[in-house]
Design a protein that fits this description.
alpha/beta; homodimer; Rossmann fold; globular; 18 strands; 513 residues; 6-stranded parallel β-sheet
């Protein structure tokens, strides 16, 4: 057994079932091992940013890591932006990055670069295997790190000779770092703060799943305090039968309004709220100077356990929490505008849909209009590195083949990783992509004045516009084997959505805004 | 004057005329400054890998740096693969990477990452501006580093508040590090080695321009020794009236055959030859253990001066060197195969064409068949990170608007940065893209057995194939505003090439192989 086979066997033994891959020469033995060792589904991506974004989407839905297979430093570099997003979502991922044979590095041949240095900013754990005999154990450590309660990105660099040399040993995955119990004194302190009033539970990450949300809502109901989430989250379980959670609006002024009167902000798998960007003259920290920030549970803690203990101490009962009713909007008629589009999504979202939302400016009304739809998951861009939506949809569809994935996609962001459509076609993934074709980096029109740059002149305007030439998404999709349609009226959009959610396999709707 | 304006004015004063950009919020003041300060052409790219690859192509043709404008760590990360290629080509580039305001970094807001760490592996020089007053001076240093004789990548990180704060000062660019004269004793040692026989001049980098090639050929002619280049080069001036140089074949065995009998290998702006990848049981170093390797001139040296001194010492005269005759192949008839395609390129390549060659496996015959075409430049992938061809064509066309750029493009590599086609359409760039649609990572079929992995099984084969679904490049181009045609016969290809070289603006030919 060579090192590559021991790696694949260790991945299988460690519960890694999927590998999103763009291999090169240095990864050929790993690819060969996939033929010999059953148990891994290998999904080819035509760009590494698709592979890493897909691994993020997969793990958000499967709650376990996928592997990626990347080709040396440049292949890893191409995947870093979506690893950045995954890191911010606390998504577990095991990256396998091929490198030159250890004895070949001395020659500094053309594809040589400092892979560890490139990996570190977006990884919690980086290791280069030194020897075929160590590859299995190294892979096991990587899986263990990724599977820790917090959710980590582990990057294992595999020199080609450690892959092809005999002597590989399959390793048992060490127990991942378990969620830490939250001490009683923290529970007590948080309980007292809630009872004192002027408090808010700010709930994020894994606390946005149904069980945790019920508990948080029960605590809020019992104490009369607010329960909120921020506006960008890795995955929210929502819709009819679930507990609806409000989100803090994104603009700095509006978020400050929400936080301003608080005496205590209580974090549940969430960071203290800060402005996404600095804007001249506006604060970076969104809470007031006098606000006391407590952490009930961090990502590495037993979040549900902490909420249960807090609910018990307060006498808060999940059974008292009202569930979201099934209340869909009517299918709208009239103009094709964002408000009506939001209603159409609310009216037509299928049960158990997985919404991969990279709508950016276009999507601001969609969250509210879909809250009474049948139960579904809502996945968002967490790290701000655009180009996640289409790859994330690939990963979510691989994780949940029986569910409909709906990718709400801004056009400018979509262009970053449009190669994902090819993988959707190849794997016949059940993804409906809806492109908001405003033909502009519209968010930057607002940001231009937010940062005090005034009004854009001719050159600046042209840097924010995608209309010359207009992108033709139906042709782009066709070029990668995905059927699509362009809609210019509300009636056309409605029937395209109706058809799209029925269709098996990928479909794309370009909405001319 | 704010920091951003001082930056733009310093760039203009330093001779930087073009900026390949994908800006975000943190770069809005730079964008605003472009409206206020004339002298920079700002070219929007819909992905950062396009921007960095375009900057590479631009500088290879303009012999001076362009700037890039990139958005924080993820934006830089998206551009790293083509910066890797540029570094291997010794291309000068000034990267401007926006960052959060200095005082905002403490909050670790979602887009925060370690930009300096990401920049270092692909940059010779990295600096973060600390203050609006320093931005001009920092930019001047960056330009100076980039313009050094060697050709360097300088990355300047610009926190948003250093861009928007008043107090900017335009700086004068310090003199770049000049080319170092080569000592007489080196000239003498090389001359003696050539006279002793069994020697080869291995010529690369800047030494592949007309004047240096003439000198190298004269030296070879006078001493009866070989003059060769490797198979991947940043830019060769070639064709009728130029000096033709042979290239070392790429496979390890064949290159070893060429180097094996040498007593002395003399490097002229080239590295000692090594295998691109390690292959089991094959050497990494391509010269024999007894071969003496001398460096006549490194990239930072006065290369032409060294060749002139060597020629003079040897009594070698440029006027004795035979020039390449104009000898085009006839337009081929018959089957659409790589040999005939090579002939068609040789028959139809227009005068002063700039060939951006990322043909990978398909292009192996094209170099020989075009050597008697009218004078032209041939630009290649130097660093092995695929996805350079289309962006490089953008940059070359911006640098040389009156010349025809011909991008010979493998399909798998083309998919990495296909967004470049949109910029070609937007800027009406004179680029003819020819896609070799073999629908496979064909090079990996060979590498699979080269690394001893045997024959690919079903899963491995599927990782190397792009045929399910087939990419439709005519639709992909149409989606980005570029007209295209698919050809399936030699006659169709010939007439498409004839039309394509006549057309002004971008055009794409998909060649079904």
């Amino acid at each position: 057994m060579n090192g590559a086979e021991s790696l694949v066997k260790t991945l299988v033994a460690g519960g890694v079932e999927v590998c999103f891959a763009n291999p090169g020469t240095s990864e050929m033995h790993f690819v060969a091992a996939l033929d010999k060792v059953p148990g891994i589904r290998c999904v080819l991506c035509l760009f590494e940013g698709v592979a890493t974004g897909a691994a993020d989407g997969y793990a958000r839905m499967a709650d376990k890591p996928a592997a990626t297979l990347l080709h040396l430093g440049p292949g890893l570099a191409n995947g870093l932006a979506n690893l950045h997003n995954a890191r911010r979502a606390r998504t577990p991922i095991v990256n396998i990055v091929g490198d030159h044979a250890t004895y070949h590095l001395q020659y500094d041949s053309p594809l040589t670069s400092d892979i560890e240095a490139l990996a570190r900013p977006m990884s919690s754990w980086v290791r280069t295997s030194k020897d075929a005999r160590m590859v299995g154990a190294d892979a096991a450590d990587a899986i263990s790190v990724a599977k820790s309660a917090k959710g980590e990105i582990a990057t294992l660099i595999l020199p080609a000779n450690t892959a092809w040399t005999e002597g590989g040993v399959v390793a048992v995955v060490p127990p991942p770092m378990a969620a830490k119990p939250v001490p009683d004194e923290v529970i007590r302190e948080v309980a007292e703060a809630l009872q004192a009033g002027s408090a808010m539970l700010l709930v994020g990450g894994k606390a946005l799943r149904h069980r945790a949300l019920q508990l948080a809502a029960a605590i809020g109901l019992k104490t009369g305090q607010q329960v909120m989430a921020i506006s960008r989250n890795p995955r929210i379980e929502r819709g009819a039968g679930r507990v609806t959670i409000d989100r803090i609006p994104n603009p700095v002024e509006k978020s400050i309004d929400r936080f301003n009167a608080l005496r205590t902000l209580i974090l549940v798998d969430e960071d203290a709220p800060v402005a996404f960007f600095a804007h001249p003259g506006k604060p970076g920290k969104l809470t007031s100077a006098t606000c006391n920030i407590l952490t009930l549970a961090a990502a590495s803690d037993d979040i549900v356990g902490a909420l249960e203990a807090l609910a018990e101490r307060l006498g808060a009962r999940v059974s008292d929490v009202p569930r979201q009713a099934l209340t869909r909007p009517d299918i709208p008629t009239g103009a094709l505008n964002l408000e009506n589009i939001g209603r159409a999504l609310g009216a037509l979202l299928p049960e158990h849909a997985i919404v991969c939302d990279e709508s950016i400016t276009s999507g601001r009304t969609f969250f509210a209009s879909t809250q009474g739809a049948p139960p579904h998951d809502w996945l968002q861009l967490t790290g701000g590195a655009i180009g996640l939506g289409m790859p994330m949809a690939v990963g979510a569809a691989v994780a949940c083949p029986t569910r409909k994935v709906i990718n709400l996609q801004a056009d400018g962001s979509g262009m970053y990783t449009l190669q994902a459509l090819w993988t959707q076609a190849r794997e016949k993934l059940n993804v409906l992509t809806v492109i908001w074709a405003n033909r502009s980096y519209k968010i930057l029109h607002n940001e231009f004045s937010n940062v005090g740059a005034g009004q854009p002149g001719d050159k600046a305007s042209s840097m924010l516009s995608l209309d010359n030439p207009a992108l033709d998404w139906v042709s782009l999709a066709k070029g990668m084997g995905v059927e699509g349609v362009r809609v210019t009226t509300m009636a056309e959009l409605t029937s395209a959505l109706q058809a799209g959610v029925q269709q098996t396999g990928p479909f794309l709707i370009e909405v001319s805004l």
